[in-house]
Design brief:
Elements: H1 23-31, H2 38-45, H3 52-71, H4 79-88, H5 101-112, H6 117-139, H7 146-156, H8 160-164, H9 174-191, H10 194-208, H11 215-227, H12 231-235, H13 239-261, H14 264-270, H15 277-306, H16 313-318, H17 322-345, H18 359-368, H19 375-407, H20 416-431, E1 437-440, H21 442-451, E2 457-458, H22 473-477, E3 480-485, H23 489-502, E4 506-516, E5 519-531, H24 537-549
Parallel strand pairs: 1-2, 1-3
Antiparallel strand pairs: 3-5, 4-5
Helix pairs in contact: 3-6, 3-19, 4-5, 4-21, 6-7, 6-9, 7-18, 7-19, 9-10, 10-13, 11-17, 15-17, 17-18, 20-21
Length: about 550
């Protein structure tokens, strides 16, 4: 390539002093592999037989669940995960802060599995494993054999499917839904079969009730269909209209909920639209840099795999199959549309909102490469991914656990279980009854609902989660408790106001201490306010139903 206006000679990557592809070595290895490579090569032989990909994903889920169990030993679950579980305790077609999918998923999981840290850590990693499985469903539309494995391995070397995934919330629930919806859309566009069209509509609706950010994925499907050369055949068929009708039908209960409750979920989402052009430009820059950083390790490894064959990239791009072109338009839409929206409306644009879409670019790069990728490279990347996982479990996880036991977490995760247990003990001592409602600092309240043997309901309506409003006297009369960490001034002042309103409250303070593998750690003081229930039979009868209504 020659730059216009300059006499620079074209760069021939073949002449570079280092061939990053190590192609001769790769070819020799594929012809006569070393003994240690042979078990891995036999595993790669099982890709099309149907067992190699599930084995890889199951191993990934098992190893990284173990990492979470070790790294967060002595520390509670992330507040986002506890919030998802709290929402899901009462089924609804919408909640006042987030669309309902994360609550449904957490409730479904804990209906089948025990309520414990390990159980919800496993849930988070199973969600990541499902995401990788659906990515493979997309990849196998375009490639076979070990290239499918390579796509998954490169994604496993991003921080998305382990560290981002462990915070199960409205963002991470999309990890599995986006590739599933993309796969169904690709099949619906290609086959125009009614079954795939229905599946595309259902999964697009599922993405929308995961997080409204998914509107960019759904809009990208429309953009891709319009930009594709086969658009006439697609739009003249019944497929897109079946998808649209199905999607609206699946969304209709949530739409009805929005219409009858004031659409507070939209209000919460639109609260992020408070910037100006300058701040939006900064957000866009950080958005792109964050996505580049997240995928950088996978990109560097791909450069080493491709080496001098990178010069084929423009030709490979031009020669992509129609299906890959469709995927390309979807990928571009998921980046360009949020950027344009941010610039037009002044919305926030954190890169973590888009991490679930990075698979689109990895699939495009690997599946769009027309050159043969030697199995030598796939084996090497497997070893790298396995090495990273083992170092994480055996070295990084215990170091992280020990560090956090000494220094603690900003949100106080070390103290959740101890604080919930002590509050429950003191409540039983004071009232002789189960604790039914809890409030205060959100993270402590969610944790108490989860860790207390009484599993009280979170008593602050989500519509007023950040208002620090005073509970109704009827709520206090049914029995109620709240917790704050010492030093949380807003929470402490709110307790003073509640105490004045209640009249018969009991305020106490106790110290909790982190513990890890028998070693004591950091300490922190917790302030609790307990309002014993009235003796009124009416207030006792209303207790459970009112606390459930408060979630919605």
């Amino acid at each position: 390539m020659v730059c216009p206006g300059h006499d620079f000679p074209p760069v021939d990557l073949k002449q570079l002093p280092v061939d990053f592809a190590f192609q001769a070595m790769a070819e020799r290895s594929d012809r006569a592999p070393a003994r240690w490579r042979r078990p891995l090569l036999r595993w790669l032989d099982g890709v099309e037989a149907g067992w190699a990909v599930p084995l890889l994903i199951a191993s990934f889920v098992a190893v990284w669940t173990l990492y979470l169990a070790v790294a967060y030993a002595g520390g509670g679950l992330h507040p986002d995960t506890l919030e998802a579980w709290t929402l899901g305790r009462n089924f609804a077609f919408g909640y006042h802060k987030h669309p309902p999918l994360m609550g449904w998923a957490a409730a479904s999981w804990t209906f089948l599995f025990p309520l414990s840290d390990f159980s919800l850590q496993l849930m988070a990693m199973v969600n990541a494993g499902l995401a990788l499985f659906f990515v493979d469903c997309v990849a196998r539309q375009f490639v076979t054999g070990h290239k499918r494995i390579l796509v998954l391995l490169l994604l496993m070397l991003t921080p998305v499917y382990q560290f981002h995934a462990q915070r199960f919330n409205a963002n991470t629930v999309l990890l599995a839904v986006w590739p599933l919806a993309t796969w169904c859309f690709l099949r619906a566009f290609e086959t125009r079969h009614a079954g795939w069209a229905i599946a595309a509509g259902c999964t697009a609706a599922l993405a929308m009730v995961g997080k409204y950010y998914s509107v960019f994925l759904v809009a990208s499907f429309g953009f891709a269909a319009l930009a594709h050369p086969a658009r006439r055949a697609y739009f003249s068929s019944a497929s897109p209209w079946i998808s649209a009708a199905t999607g609206l039908a699946v969304l209709s209960p949530h739409i009805y909920w929005l219409a009858t409750t004031g659409a507070s979920t939209f209000s919460y989402a639109l609260a992020h639209a408070n910037g100006d052009t300058v701040s939006s430009l900064g957000d866009v820059k950080n958005f792109l840099l964050g996505l580049i950083a997240a995928i950088s390790v996978a990109a560097v490894i791909w450069v080493f795999i491709a080496g001098s064959r990178l010069r084929q990239l423009p030709a490979d791009f031009a020669a992509m199959s129609p299906g890959l072109w469709l995927l390309f338009y979807v990928a571009i839409g998921t980046i360009i549309l949020p950027i344009l929206t941010s610039l037009a409306m002044g919305t926030d644009l954190p890169s973590l909102w888009a991490l679930q879409g990075l698979f689109l670019f990895v699939v495009l790069i690997v599946c769009g490469a027309r050159f043969q990728v030697e199995r030598f490279y796939t084996v090497n990347v497997t070893v790298i991914a396995a090495g990273v996982a083992l170092v994480a479990v055996l070295v990084a996880a215990p170091i992280h656990a020990v560090y956090r036991n000494i220094h603690g977490y900003e949100e106080g995760r070390n103290f959740y279980a101890q604080a919930a247990s002590e509050l429950t003990r003191q409540w039983h001592e004071l009232t002789g009854e189960p604790l039914s409602a809890v409030s205060g600092d959100d993270s402590l309240a969610f944790a108490t609902a989860f860790y207390s043997p009484d599993h009280p309901h979170y008593a602050r309506p989500f519509a007023h989660q950040y208002d620090w409003g005073l509970p109704r006297k009827a709520t206090l009369g049914r029995g109620w408790a709240a917790l704050c960490f010492e030093g949380q001034d807003d929470c402490s002042r709110w307790m003073d106001s509640v105490s004045s309103r209640a009249g018969n409250s009991v305020r106490r303070e106790f110290t909790v201490q982190a513990s890890l593998w028998g070693r004591s750690g950091v300490k922190r003081n917790v302030i609790v306010l307990m309002v014993p229930p009235d003796a009124s039979p009416e207030s006792a009868a209303q207790d459970l139903s009112a606390s459930k209504r408060s979630l919605n």
